[in-house]
Amino acid sequence: MQENIEIIQINISGADKPGMTSSLTAILARYDACILDIGQANIHQSLTLGILIMTTPEKSGCIMKELLFKASELGMMIRFTPISEADYNAWVGRQGKNRYIITLLGRTVSARHIAEVTAVVAEHGLNIDAIRRLTGRMPLHEDDRAAKACIELSVRGTLTDETRSAMQERFMNLSEQGLDVSFQRDDIYRRSRRLICFDMDSTLIETEVIDELADRAGAGAEVRAITESAMRGEIDFRESFTRRVALLKGLDVSVMDEIARNLPITEGLERMMTILKRVGYKTAILSGGFTYFGNYLRQRYGFDYVYANELEVEGDKLTGRYVGEIVDGRRKAELLRLLCQFEGINLAQSVAVGDGANDLPMLNLAGLGIAFHAKPKVKAGARQSISTIGLDGILYFLGLKDSRIEG
Predict the structure, then answer these.
(1) Helices (H) and strands (E) in the chain — how many of each?
(2) Domain 97-185 belongs in CATH node 3.30.70.260
(3) pTM of model > 0.90
(4) What is the pLDDT of residues 311-342, one digit of tens each?
(5) Which CATH number fits domain 6-93: 3.40.50.150, 3.20.80.10, 3.30.70.260, 1.10.10.350?
(6) Annotated catalytic residue: which of 161, 186, 199, 392?
(7) Does 32 participate in catalysis according to the annotation?
């Protein structure tokens, strides 16, 4: 750095006013000050502005004097802090460290939640560069089911694979306290997701369709027991699927239309799909359920792809058999990979969302895998999870901010 320079950090705070930043930077411009860094944050009606400048000793006194007068005129507080070249160079050197995004999501995000997350950040030597709220401004009173809050932290530092896994595990455990925490590397792929693949049953809809069919066939209890065992990963999905479908033999196909028209849709699905389509995402249903119901959701919400299982029909009755290859965990991961190839995107640009053990292969293959209201075994095997709010919580894990996507 050249000789005879001064580096000064300027911090301004007070009530936000139109034209405040313009009038302050105009003073810096008159003295040809070099702005090395600048950042501004607004909370309620108050503003905090930080500017790091480089100037000469001959000009620094005049700059500070004029800024002091202008701040007084505007009713703002101002503080000047000299920065040594050594400190500045050390700060510049830290920019090469890895960056991460930590997303705090829940019905509410409390001071205790923030304290616990930031304590983990500090313990691992990470520095918080920025904090921003992704959800809209919080009303004082709101329906508990509809309420949601999200805060995003941008942090910087160096982690080993072991320490990163340890942080991720601690964050995942916070779901027991009503908080979901996503921990992602802040890289080019995180900012350019393009494809989202969803499980259907107990993810997009709040039921297992095969259980609904089994109730009509008089085999509800038996099928539910097999379903639960399969979702917990206790029996092979392929075996469980074959056994459950066999119990549907003789059911009239008209029952499927009745079930489809009365599917319990998961909270946040419509809002999520509206916004994902608006910003250009491709969406797919990769389901161990049935194509009839996947296609119903496709027509209603605009999914781009549906891959599920086809039930065999003879004379308007289910035969108890299926047609084609079973869409199990292995097949879901394979379809995710094929869709990325077809869309011409990197696997790191994909997102997968599901709740069952048969979703883990695609959750771990995708760039961002989210266990949604999942069983404990599935959450333990996934890198991210959402357990506190609806499907539109996924939007915040993608970094989308309410004020930019609504309307």
Answers:
(1) 16, 15
(2) yes
(3) no
(4) 999 999 999 999 999 999 999 999 999 999 99
(5) 3.30.70.260
(6) 199
(7) no
